[in-house]
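Aggregate trends can hide what the representation actually does to any particular protein. This step matters because it turns folding into a mapping between discrete strings. For completeness, the protein is quoted in full, as a sequence line and a line of structure tokens:
=====
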Amino acid sequence: MHSALPLLGRLGASAAGLLTDLLHEWRALCPPRLRQWFRPDSPQVCVHRSGGRLSVEAHGVQPGVAVALMLPETDVLQIELELPAAAARNLRQAVAYRLLRDSPLAPERMLFDICSQPRRPYAGPVTVAVALCHRRDVEEVLALARDHGLEVGSVCFNGVADGDISRTWVFHTSERVRANGRRQRWNRALAASAVLGACALFVLGLGLAHWQQTQLRDEAARLTRAAGVDSELLAQASAVRALREQLREALPATRVTSQLNALAEHLPGDAWLERSEFAEGTMVLGGRAPEPSRALAALKSSALLAGIRLDSVARSANPGEAPQFVMSLGQAPGRN
């Protein structure tokens, strides 16, 4: 667990560095008009210093409009600092510590702004452009603006940083400007959230459509397989029915068991069968009866035994024994 923490820290630092590089690249490629739309500029009012005295050019400024006071060049010092790569996480705090350590002036007497150069991952130290001014000079400029009835939004300086001549260093912002900035950031966050939400819904819709399409393909394949199985079962059932019809046509309607049941039902009680056999499709019955002709008439009363006939009658040589008879069923017997 502990070994994973440094890895997570390095991954977080790499992600932060990549995001910083992307922001720098976006700012470099962003057109000035679009950049101004994201961060609209206030009217600039230049402050001049001559012989130690300050003067301000406030012509054409509308009342109630927050202006950006531009410090004279003599009041601002621009330097470059080289910081370790780890300082990229919080450059402003790292610069403040560096100034606290190296500057001859007390930190509470200075104001500064920074601009870092784009840094590639694992590119080594970070080069930071820093602009410094004396707090007393900013307070003096603010007092001058109040004397002229100007509403100050920020105290800035137009300078050069990393080849960008439009770089504006900001040393002081009013509460109104800070509130507007927070409101603009909130609006931009809402707009970005709406765009991300729309993108997420679009991606979700694509994923849902793909999932539904996959489900439909799987269901179609399952139904196709089921239809194939049903077709085979239907074909087998049809073949069985056809074979059954063929057997029904080939075999006689009367079965042996039905004929034997009819014999047992209609044979007189004083007659009995001693043998039965099949010969060339004919059932031959042999037995004894006191009156074979009466037994034949009783058997002919059955619809199943309509083809029965008496073939022979023989008197027994033993006195008191019933005569022997042989009967045949001309209809070919079926199969059990």
Q: What stands out?
A: Helices lie at 4-29, 32-38, 91-102, 135-147, 175-250, 256-266, 292-300. The two ends are 81 Å apart (CA to CA). The chain has seven helices and twelve strands.
